[in-house]
Amino acid sequence: MAFSFNKLKNILNTNKDSTLSGSGSSEPEIGFKLSLHPISKNLFVTVIGARNLPSFFGLSRAHGYLVKVKVFPGDNKYETTLQDTSNPVWNEDFKFQLKPKDSKKTDLQSQLAGHFLSLTIYALLDTPKPDDKKKSSKTLDAKTTMNTMNEEPKKSLLSSFSSFKVSKESTAQKNILEKRRTVGAATWNFDSKLFQNDLKNGLIGTPDIWRPINAITSGLSTTDTRRENRKGQLEVTLLYSGSEDGFNDTVQLTVNRLRCSVQTMQEHEQFKAPLYLKATILEANKAECYWKSDRFVPTISARWDPKSATVKLSVFKVNLNKVSIYISLGCKTKMAKKEILGKATIDDKSAYSESWTETLRQPGVPKTFWVNFE
C-alpha cells in the first residue's frame, strides 16, 4: 500500500512534548520506537530523545548531542540533528529496509529474525561555527563583480576559490571529528511480540522503548572475551592463490571489521583525532603494497566494504616464506604527530602462524580470523 513519508511522520510523532518521562531511571538512557509495513518491509525508526546525558568530558563542556542510527543487517545509517540540552528531544524518523534471512517466510517473527537496532550517542564539545561556505560565497561575488570586464582573472579567481572551498570543508570535517566524543551506545534486538500497535496505512508499531546507554558492550561473546586484547581486535580474511608456473602467485588480505571495548574507545578519544587503519604486505621486510582506510571517529565497532578494503601482492612461490603482513591502527594529532594505537603482524612466525600456514596449504580457500592489536 502506497503512502507518503510526511503522512507517516504525522502518525508517528503524535507527541512533541519538550520533556521526556523516560523509564524513570536516573542513569543515561535513550528512547525510540519502531513501525513496520509487513508487505513492503519498510521499517521506520523514531528516535524520541535521551535523558541524563553527561555535560562534561574532562574539562570540556558538551554543547550539543546527536545520535547515529543503524539497523543490522543493512548498509544505511543516519544521524539526528544536533540538540543543545542534556535531555534532548528529537522525535526524528528514519527509514530502513528489512532484509529477512528467508524471504519465503512471511510471518512477522521470521521477517524480524536476526535484526537489531544500534544507537550511538555523540557529544559535540564546541559550538558549531557558521557555514564558511556562505561567507566565502559572498566574498567571491564581490570580487568577481569587480572583474566583470576581465574574463581571465575571473576564471583564475574561481579556480582558486574552488580549491579554497574544498580545503575549508575538509578542515571543517576534521574539526567536527576531533570535537566529537562518544557518550555511549544502546542496542535492541527486534522482538516481534512488541509490534502490537495497529497504526494507519497498514503499519504496525512498538510502544516507546527506553534503553540504558551504557548497556552496549564491544560485541564480544564470552568465549572471545578472554582473547580480546585491550587495544581491540580486527577481523581479516586471508586468501592465497597459486599460479601454474609459480611465478604469479598472489597473497590477498581483506579487512572486514574492527571491534573494541568501551574503555578502549574512550582511550582512543583522548587523542582528540580521527583514526585510520593501514594494512601493508611486505616481501623480505620491504613494503610492496598497502591499503589505508578513510579516517573515522573512535568507535566500538566499524565495518569496511570487502571490495575496497583489500590489498593484494603478486609473488614468486619460492618467496612465500619471505612474505609478511603488518597492520596498524593509528591517528595524527593536531601537532601532526603520528600515534600508533595498535599493531599486529601475520606471518609464519607470528601468533597467527597456524592461520597463515593453513591459508598457504589451501590455495583458493579464504581464511577469516581475528587478530589482536598489541
From TrEMBL:
<feature type="domain" description="C2">
    <location>
        <begin position="24"/>
        <end position="159"/>
    </location>
</feature>
<dbReference type="Pfam" id="PF00168">
    <property type="entry name" value="C2"/>
</dbReference>
<protein>
    <recommendedName>
        <fullName>C2 domain-containing protein</fullName>
    </recommendedName>
</protein>
<dbReference type="InterPro" id="IPR000008">
    <property type="entry name" value="C2_dom"/>
</dbReference>
<dbReference type="InterPro" id="IPR035892">
    <property type="entry name" value="C2_domain_sf"/>
</dbReference>
